[in-house]
Amino acid sequence: MNLTLSLKTKIAITFAFLFILLILAALPFRHHQERKASENVIQNYERFMQHIKHERLSKENVIQYLQNLGFLEVKDPIEILLFSDKQVIKKHGFEVFVVKDKYYLHVLAPHFRVLLQDTSNKFERTYVDIFIILFVVFLFIFIYYLIIKNINDNEHQLKSRQLFLRTVMHELKTPIAKGRIVGELIDDEKQKNRIITIFEKLNFLIDDFAKIEQIVSKNYNPNMFKYSIEKLVQKSIDMLLLENTENIVSENISTKKINVDADLFAMALKNLIDNALKYSNDSKVLIKEQNNTLLIISNGEELPKALHEYFKAFHNDTKFKNHGMGLGLYIVNSILQMHSMRLEYEYLDKQNVFKIILEK
Prior knowledge:
Order of helices and strands: HHEHEEEEHHEHEEHEEHEE
Oligomer: single chain
CATH superfamily of the largest domain: Histidine kinase-like ATPase, C-terminal domain
Largest sheet: 5 strands, antiparallel
Number of domains: 3
Number of helices: 8
């Protein structure tokens, strides 16, 4: 599905961006570690040099003193001095070099020079930052895997349900067609009309399910024309296939025309009316037009979740005994989005008020 592919791409880009940010954040941390290590080593060397200057030690005594502190005299200093990785610091009386992660102290006395390798104070690289980066990277990969797996599972579940719906609709079409043909053979005109009406309603429901399946799978192209709000409301009530519609009251519904796919818009409105009838305390619904908004009002308990939670396909709130597949408000929201409209909800004075904000 294009929607799923787009979502996967967005997630991949997000994780790649976070990974780059992690690397960029780690580089200054690494540099800080190196600088801190160098500062600690230099502070020790400055203390050693202060002692050497204070005691006015000779070359032999300097070598002996530093050897006792873990230094080793370099017999061939030219190679180290010429090919050192970097000069860490140069001060009056000494300079410090680093070669292959090892520190070298170059003593610059007035009458002699001597280069010594620090065998105790090696440049110890701490790999804590690398371990942290690797841990976070693996954590990112694991989270990414879980998210993609969840998307794939949902996609598979959605395809399975779509296949089920298509199969059921296909299998029902044949017996409905045959039933209507048999209905034509009934002699009693009243019974004949009743049977034919029943099968026509069943066929209408199958077509309705087909549109729902197309909406869920994002394969429907709306046919937009101008229709009056009054006719659309009436069409939605007719789609309920109720024998008695006295409990559905319309108020202030105008003849103003709006640009919609009549079948889709009526289906969305029908679902809202149907839900209002199912979950109301008195099985009554008021449909009202007000300020470019259609209101579907019924007495009942407040929605237990935020409205956007019901916009998810197959949310299936099993709290209610007459729950369906969890597609009702998902379909309504999808249809309204096709029409650049939106659905809002308000619980006021113990009444559920669903609002269709019509196009401008």
